[in-house]
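Quick question: what would this complex look like in 3D?
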Amino acid sequence: MNSYLRSQKRVVLRNCGQIDPNSIEEYISSGGYRALKRALLEMEPAAVVQTVKDSGLRGRGGAGFPTGLKWEFAAKAEGDPKFVICNADEGEPGTFKDRLILEGDPHCVIEGMVIAAYAVGASKGYLYIRGEYGQSYETITNALKQARSAGFLGNDIAGSGFGFDIVVRSGAGAYVCGEETALMESIEGKRGESRVKPPYPTDKGLWGYPTVINNVETLANIPPIIENGADWFRQIGTPTSPGTKVFTLTGDVMNRGLVEVPMGTTLRTLVFDVGGGIPRGRKFKMAQTGGSSGGCLPASLLDIPLDFDSLREVDSSLGSGALLIVDDSHCIVDVVKSFMHFFEHESCGKCTPCREGTYRLARLVEKIEDEEATLADLDVLSRLCRVMERSCLCGLGQAAPKPVLTTLKYFKEEYLVHLRDQAASKGA
Amino acid sequence: MNACSTAPTLSTETDKQIDRVIEEYKDEPSPLLEILNEVQHIFGYLSDDMLIAISEKLSIPTSQVYGVATFYSLLSTRPKGKHIIRVCESAPCHVMGSESVLRAVKDELGIDLGETTPDGLFTLESTSCLGICSVGPAMMVNDRVFGNLTREKVRLILRRYAKDKEASVS
Ligand SMILES: Cc1cc2nc3c(=O)[nH]c(=O)nc-3n(C[C@H](O)[C@H](O)[C@H](O)COP(=O)(O)O)c2cc1C
Ligand code: SF4
Ligand code: FES
């Protein structure tokens, strides 16, 4: 077996490419909907919550919150009805795992949603999918129809007496709508602006009712966990980040694309074994983990294990599992500028530190790139970052400074050579 | 949008089509975004009159309908060209050379970002990640995505769309 295949372990992607996504029969004959039947017919809702808690599964949408705990909060919350939302808004640059899961194995996401609904007592589900994902929309709509006729959605699912159905909602091009409360605003027909938390969605979510919101990949992990048990799941990955993670490799790497490996696999393994290394004889310069708001790591950190806690220790994050590899032909300031343009464009504008801050960050980085900045500007840059981290209302503004701060930490010299005096003395 | 909104001057046919879309979502609570998505899908954009009509039919303030219509980048309150080109500008595509792709599109069409060609055939926009970064640099033309773009490939794609003024390219 070559190293590309050897490092991989397929839990979430077990069916992708193996079965016809448009055939519920193929899903069922590969073991699909068995976990649903087991949960609904043989387990109490509290036992389902307990199993997910015991598995140690943490949310794959970015924040890494323990899924079982989230379900327990929603199950205990007062309110009727309750909702389950599948977050398929996937707008994080460099991430396309949810699209490929939805297009490759839509039924496993539906199955995960029904089990979640049963566990927390929800009667209706929403699957919010990005507006640009036309193919995913079609595949999932078709799968929902099939699941309904097969009795896995609707009243009295699989003869259990439990009823639940799912509506698909389409976004309209706004990255911030991936943030859970902004997404709920959007389903409610409003501008997708994040809400102040608390209250948390498990208490007051969609239309003010208790709501569980989970990422596509999180939900795709549920059927195998119910089927094989929490202990099985805990054998994969690390003690605090059990299971696998789907990563998307992009940028300057030989094998760009989707891979699933155990949590805790090192960055080096992903870039050089699974990813096949850097093309055109170039050298590795940096990797950004977790998407546009992730930290930028230098070669000296290649041996870092990719899991929630290890990455937090180096001021980065696992995020959505995006890995952007950048080789030594690129200027760090230029790459950072691209991140900052993204945040400037996607800030929802509700709170001042982010609306103004993302604009200022972009201008400052442009000023540096144009060799017009001084050391004092660098100081303003890092102070602005600190202010935004502390005062922005939602994760977008809070995390936007992360690529700036980590590059200032690990690649400071690249900023310095752009400063006015240094650039001038270089030219002289 | 005008400060004082006048009575909608929609054709009966347009009005009927909007009614039909609204009817489709009558069982859904607060389906405004879905309705806007669909009306735009039919007409290509959301005119002031359409927004006013939707606000009256749903009994939602026009300001709120307008606020939603202008928040989302896939919704447009202005008419656009027949083919909408969205070049991805996010970092993974940027690293793979999206700047030269954008330049190639601009050169070929002779327009800047946000503009429409005089013949009304193309509108050029930039977009955040399209979720096909493994084949970046990437762009979308209408509902279709194109990857591994080079200047040459961009030229070929655009010329194919330009030739096909009537039938849509599939
Ligand atoms: C700006 C921003 C964008 C986000 N985008 C997404 C997204 O596209 N998909 C997603 O699942 N979570 C996204 N999240 C995280 C969600 O807010 C939320 O934590 C997640 O959907 C919870 O599901 P999980 O616990 O299964 O991860 C985003 C968060 C922020 C702050
Ligand atoms: S941090 Fe940014 S995206 Fe979040 S609420 Fe404030 S302005 Fe909106
Ligand atoms: S970054 Fe361009 S498609 Fe993802």
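Answer marked as accepted. Chain B touches chain A through 37 residues (CB under 8 Å).
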